């Protein structure tokens, strides 16, 4: 593996341990509208904290957590909330910007 790639992965993991950076990263991935991209980002956040540690702290099975965060995963709201809480994050809903109607 090229050295620059490894540096990027380590830098990303380090950054995703910070809740502020992780929140920005997850929001950017979520804004793209792709469920798969969001699940990948969530998996990266979990990996930054250690999958085993996240599974234990959130009272989820490690294998179940891997399955949930896979590209075909479909996390339940409770699972998502536990995972986010373990990473120092919370779920938030906000209003979309409304586009002006044409008259």
Provide the fold topology.
Blueprint (H helix, E strand, L loop, with lengths): L2 H14 L2 H13 L3 H15 L1 H7 L4 H7 L8 H10 L17
General description of the model:
This protein is an all-alpha fold and 103 residues long. It has helices at 3-16, 19-31, 35-49, 51-57, 62-68, 77-86. The longest helix is centred in the middle third of the chain and has 15 residues, at 35-49. The model has no long low-confidence stretch (mean pLDDT 89).
- List the total number of helices: 6
The strand count comes to 0
Oligomer: single chain
Percentage of residues in strands: under 5%
Report the major sheet: none
The dominant shape is globular
| Class derived from helix and strand content | mainly alpha
| Uncertain ranges | none
Radius of gyration: 15 Å
Helix content: 55-70%
Order of helices and strands: HHHHHH
Mean pLDDT: 89
- C-alpha termini separation: 57 Å
């Amino acid at each position: 593996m090229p050295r620059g790639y490894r540096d990027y992965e380590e830098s990303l993991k380090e950054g995703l341990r910070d809740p502020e950076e992780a929140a920005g990263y997850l929001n950017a991935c979520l804004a793209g509208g792709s469920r798969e991209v969001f699940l990948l980002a969530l998996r990266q956040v979990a990996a930054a904290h250690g999958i085993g540690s996240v599974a234990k702290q959130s009272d989820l099975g490690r294998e179940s957590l891997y399955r949930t965060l896979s590209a075909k995963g479909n996390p339940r709201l409770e699972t998502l909330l536990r995972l986010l809480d373990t990473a120092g994050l919370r779920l938030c809903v906000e209003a979309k910007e409304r586009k002006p109607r044409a008259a």
